[in-house]
Design brief:
Pnp Oxidase, Chain A, alpha+beta
């Protein structure tokens, strides 16, 4: 499951505030050693309001391998997780998180880091950090011949 989380690009995260759910999908970076997911976002908005009210999250990373015609079946791999979210405001921590994200998302991480990580940029962005507290997964892969 950890290999899978390192190899994907999009995560869907469910939040709740005052009994009202909110769901969003974003690109992310996964720090395997720390078992944390990092997502960058604006400093204000619905995600921030929900996390401030309730840091408990549920999320899913899924790889769609396609519908199988004639079998009434779908092939996929998915990992679900429970965790707690907090907001990273420290510039050094933001830098580390962006390094994790760029390493996972960019084809040329060195170029991406030079282009996207600057002191002024770090001040503008906020990082959501999700500490994973539990994982589960499921898959439906093609039958081996």
């Amino acid at each position: 499951m950890l290999d899978f989380l390192e190899g994907q690009k999009l995560v869907t995260v469910a939040l709740s505030k005052n009994g009202k759910p909110y769901l969003f999908t974003a690109d992310y970076g996964f720090d395997r050693k720390a078992k944390r997911i990092f997502i960058h976002c604006a400093k204000k908005g619905k995600k921030i309001d929900y996390i401030d009210a309730n840091p408990v999250v549920w999320g899913q990373v899924m790889e769609d391998l396609g519908y199988v015609q004639g079998e009434c079946s779908h092939r996929y791999r998915a990992v679900q997780f429970k965790g707690k979210a907090d907001l990273v405001t420290d510039l050094d921590e933001k830098r580390k998180a962006l390094h994790v994200m760029i390493d996972q998302l960019e084809e040329n991480p060195s170029k991406g880091k030079k282009e996207f990580i600057s002191k002024s940029g770090l001040k503008k962005v906020l990082i959501i950090r999700i500490k994973i507290e539990g994982l589960s997964g499921k898959e439906s892969l093609p039958k081996k011949k």
